[in-house]
Amino acid sequence: MKNTVYRKILSVLLVVIECIIFYAIFVAMDINMKLLRQSIGLYVIYMILCGHYSIKDELIFDEIKHVFQATVIYMITFAVIMPYSAHTDKRRYIMILAMIMFFVSIILNRTLRIIMRHLLTKKTIVIGTSEDSLRYARLYNNNRFAITEVLGFVNLNTDPRFDQKFDNVVREDWNRFSDAPIYDYQDLAKIVKEQRVDQITIADSTMNQATFDLVIKDCIPLCDSIQYMPQDNHMMNFSSSIHDSDGLLLISASRNKVSIFSRFIKRTIDIFFALIGTIITIPLALIVKIINLVHGDHGPIFYKQMRVGRNGQPLGIYKFRSMVTNADEVLAQLLESDPAVKEEWIRSAKLKDDPRITPAGKFLRKTSLDEFPQFFNILKGDMSLIGPRPVIKEELEWYGDRVDKFLSVRPGLTGYWASHGRSDVDYPERCDLELYYIDHQSILIDMEIVIKTITGVLTGEGAR
């Protein structure tokens, strides 16, 4: 395919440009030129082995994982080799160079993908109009690092051969993805030919086996690349693997146990960021106090909320007060007088236009600065930087028989739900997102959540 050629060109461009940048930084840092050949050679080899130059259809966080692995191996190699060489005084410069190239390689790859996106994209048709289908399309079309272009959706409800009814949230949620048309299933072959489709994605995990077999049978003659979403019931995680046992395809759904080393690293990161956060919180508290006084609010700036912590233990979390001091009374009156407000509260435990929020509170919530005092909780070990958001006892009912899993980890200052929609997500979906993190938790996932949280705070998405 034509885009395959351009992907190879991009791979070559990455190698050449990165080598030039590596050489320029190497010379600028006055590192001994005798080390250049082995330094740049190992850099390229490790990047190749870790998949950096394989231009695959993936998200930016997968790329960060590849480059991070290559950088760590590279630094470990020189930490072991350099002490026995004649240039031990330059070891620290090569370590710094490796860290600089970590950021350079990611930024360069992303920039070139954006520039060459129209040449690299894999034109894709999504079969299905479910929530999974919409999420897939939004994820890849809105992510400029990915090289998948969703051309439209195929409605399974138009074919009488299928003995089940499918959701059509794409039509219901039209304004969020208005540029992607919905085609009838009977027109699939014509669409693939006319649109020159490179890939078909079956993204509806609700279809039964009979429907799936028919769809696969129809798609195989039409396209070389077909991918589908499995019905894994949230059992698969990053510890899962696929095995081909003499023609039998087996998927292992292993428990994603967090190692002692990972827990140590996580706690170390918690303490590091908690120390920084508490330092920032002190002058921030002074600013909040001044704003409150200007608006005639003489109440305390901090308050303590009781939540449920790890293993069901009571947890008092600290926050900047963002509501009036008699917030509970105001809420009770609202729920009693306005049925629409009551329905909204029951559905999501939040109010979109909450009259209890103070002027300072609006700013604090929009920027998520009201959560900063929870860095004290992290220092105490009650919470973690990343984890499910702490809940009140009544909210545990939403988790049903999964409540023990939810309570098996420390609550977090931010988490998977907080970084993937926050106030735009209803409570049942929030539960799924929080439990997804518990099943898939890792240092790399934590890095993704931190980046998404910072992005969300800066853009104001989902904050309230």
TrEMBL record:
This is Undecaprenyl-phosphate galactose phosphotransferase WbaP. Pfam families: Bac_transf, CoA_binding_3. The keyword RNA-binding does not apply. It comes from the Bacteria. The chain crosses the membrane at residues 9-29, 35-55, 67-86, 92-112, 271-291. Residues 266-458 form the Bacterial sugar transferase domain. Belongs to the bacterial sugar transferase family. PANTHER family: COLANIC BIOSYNTHESIS UDP-GLUCOSE LIPID CARRIER TRANSFERASE (PTHR30576), UNDECAPRENYL-PHOSPHATE GALACTOSE PHOSPHOTRANSFERASE (PTHR30576:SF4).
